[in-house]
Amino acid sequence: MAMISPNETTSEDYSDYYNLTPGDYSPHNTNNIKAFSRVFLPTIYSIVFIVGLIGNGLVLCVLVKYHKRSNMSDVCLFNLALSDLLFLLSLPFWAHYAAITQWVFGRFMCHAVTALYMLGYYGSIFFMMLMTIDRYAVIVHTHTSLLSKYRSVRAIIALILFTWTLSLVASLPNIIFSQTSMSNKPNESTCSFEHPNPKWRLFFYIELNILSLIIPLSVMVFCYSRIIPILMSMKSQKKHKAVRLILVLVSVFFIFWTPYNVVIFLKFLHQLGYINTSQWYQDLNMAMEWVESIAFTHCCLNPIIYAFVGQRFRNLFLKILKEWFPLCFGQCPIIESECSQRMTTMYSCSSVTDQSQNI
C-alpha cells in the first residue's frame, strides 16, 4: 500500500515522497493538514480495527466450532477472515505512527508490521478471487468431472497454500525494502520503503493496480456474468436475492477499491513526470489519505457480505451467542432453511443466497 512519509518536504526533491510505506500518513508540510491527519487517521484506523476484529473474529469462531468436513467455500471464507485479521493487526501500529509522526517500534517491527499489512492486503484480495472462481466452477461447470476433482482435501490444501505463497511473493518487495531511518527532525525515525532504484517505484504502482483491481475485478465480472444467467434459469423464489447479492459484491469491491487505485495510477504518472508539480504532489498526498481510509473499511464489510448474509451462517452464529450469552439470546429462534430439491452441487439444503455468499 502507498502511504506518505511524515518528514517529506514540498521542495522539488520528491525523494521522501516516494519512500512510500504503510503508516507514512502526513500529506505535506502544511501544519493544519498535519494536525488534521494526526487526528483523522488514528480515529479511522481505530474504528476499522475494532469493527473488523469483531466481525472477522466471529467468522473464525463459527467456522472453527462448527467445522465438520472440508468444504472449499468455508475454507476460503476462513482464510479470507484470517487475511483480514492479519491486515487489521497492523493498523494499531500505523495509527500510533500517524498520531506522533515517528516510528518508535524499531527496525524489526517495521519489517514485521509491513509483512502483516501486505500479506493481509494481498491475501484478502486473492482469497476473494478464489471464492469467485470456486462459485463459478460449482455453478457453471457443475457436471464437469475434471473441475469437481479439485475439491478434494489435498487439492483444497494445495490451492490454499498456493494462494498464501502468491500473497507472500507479491508482498516481498515491500517487506524487504521497508527500512527505519532518521527523519529531518532530531531523534525521530520513520518506517518507509527504501527502494534501491526508481524503477522499483514504478513496479510498485503497477503491481498494486494490476493485482488489487484489474485482475480481481476482471475475474469477478467474467465469473458472475456466467453465473447470473444460470441462477435466473433456476426455478427458485430466492434466485433474485442471489443475483442482487452478486451485484452488491461486485459493486462494493469496485466502489471501495477503485478510488484508491485511481490515485495510485496518478502517482505512477507523477513518477513518470507527466504531472510533476508541487500542487499535484500535495493533492495526491491528501487524496491518498481519504481513498485509503475508504479501502480499509472493506475488510469490515467482508464478514457481512461473505458470511452473515447466509441463513446457515447466521444460524450457526446464533448458536454460539446462545452458548456464550444464554440469558440474552436463549429465546432467539433458529430458522432452518427449506430445501425441496438439489438445484446444483453444493446448492442443496440451504438457500441460493447461502451458496452465493462466498462468491
Brief synopsis:
The chain is mostly helical. The protein is built from twelve helices and two strands. The protein starts with 30 loop residues before the first helix and ends with a helix.
Write the SSE topology:
Elements: H1 31-65, H2 72-100, H3 106-140, H4 145-148, H5 153-177, E1 178-182, E2 189-193, H6 198-233, H7 239-272, H8 278-296, H9 298-308, H10 311-324, H11 326-329, H12 352-356
Family: Belongs to the G-protein coupled receptor 1 family.
GO molecular function, one term: C-C chemokine receptor activity
Protein name: G-protein coupled receptors family 1 profile domain-containing protein
Kindly describe this structure:
With 359 residues, the chain is mainly α. It contains twelve helices and two strands, in the order H-H-H-H-H-E-E-H-H-H-H-H-H-H. Strands 1-2 form a two-stranded antiparallel sheet. Helix 1 runs antiparallel to helix 2, helix 3 runs antiparallel to helix 5 (153-177) and helix 3 (106-140) runs parallel beside helix 6 (198-233). The longest helix is centred in the middle third of the chain and has 36 residues, at 198-233. The two termini are 25 Å apart. Mean pLDDT is 77; it is low at 1-29 and 336-359. One of its GO terms (cellular component) is early endosome. This is G-protein coupled receptors family 1 profile domain-containing protein.
Q: Based on DSSP secondary structure assignment, what is the total number of beta strands? A: 2
Could you tell me how far the N terminus lies from the C terminus, measured between alpha carbons in angstroms? 25 Å
What gross morphology would you assign? Answer: globular
Structural class: mainly alpha
Helix coverage percent of residues? Answer: 55-70%
Order of helices and strands: HHHHHEEHHHHHHH
Poorly predicted parts? 1-29, 336-359
| Major pleated sheet | 2 strands, antiparallel
Please report which band the strand proportion falls in: under 5%, 5-15%, 15-25%, 25-35%, 35-45% or over 45%.
Answer: under 5%
Q: Could you tell me the radius of gyration in angstroms?
A: 22 Å
Mean pLDDT: 77
Give the number of helices: 12
Spatial arrangement of strands, main beta sheet: 1-2
